[in-house]
Structure formats: C-alpha cells, structure tokens
C-alpha cells in the first residue's frame, strides 16, 4: 500500500504539473500555475517523508501536511474551473484523485493516531 501511494501521489503531482503548465499565460493563469505546481508536488514529497518518519508522531505530522497540500491542490483545480481557465471535463479525473488521496491519507492518519495512543 505504501509503495502504491508513493507512486499514486507522484503521478498526481506529474498530472497536476502538466495541467498547470497548460494554463493560459495570463497573470491569473501564471499565479495558479505556480500555486498548483507547489501544492501538488508537496503532496508527493510529504507523503514520501512520512513514510521514512522516525516516529509515529513524525509520520502523523508529515501526513497532515500531505493532507493539507492535496486539499489545496483540489482548491486550485476547482478555482481554475470557476475562472473558466479550463473546462471541468479536463480536470475531473484530477479532482477525483485528489478526493481519493485525501480520504486515504485521512484514514491513515486516524489509524496512526489510534495506534500511537495504545
């Protein structure tokens, strides 16, 4: 599962980068491009860091950052759709993946917190 999530979160980052660089080269498009690239790549980086955490507390902290960053990525994708920079159909699979990753990461954090308190 851990390896699958490393692959999935990295693939999510790659897909978001490709989407981001396809945005119009306007002031808003460039702003969202940078924000989406930053947040999406941070998801993968923080999940990897969580996996090599030296303690449950460290794992939970890094996983919490990954959750925040995947949610932020979702926000930027929704925002670019709201601003009519891309059609929703081009973004739906990324929105679904961000929702799934969020759910998985939250469930993992809950489990880790329960195990830590035992």
UniProtKB/TrEMBL annotation:
It comes from the Bacteria. Signal peptide: none annotated. InterPro entries: 23S_rRNA-intervening_sequence, 23S_rRNA_IVS_sf. This is Four helix bundle protein.
């Amino acid at each position: 599962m851990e390896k699958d999530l490393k692959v999935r979160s990295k693939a999510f980052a790659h897909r978001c980068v490709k989407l981001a660089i396809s945005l119009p080269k306007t002031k808003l498009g460039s702003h969202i491009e940078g924000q989406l690239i930053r947040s999406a790549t941070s998801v993968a980086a923080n999940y990897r860091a969580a996996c090599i955490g030296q303690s449950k507390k460290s794992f939970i902290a890094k996983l919490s950052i990954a959750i925040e960053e995947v949610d932020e990525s979702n926000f930027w994708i929704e925002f670019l759709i709201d601003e009519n920079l891309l059609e929703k159909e081009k973004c739906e699979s990324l929105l679904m993946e961000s929702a799934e990753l969020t759910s998985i990461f939250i469930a993992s954090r809950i489990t880790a917190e329960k195990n830590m308190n035992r």
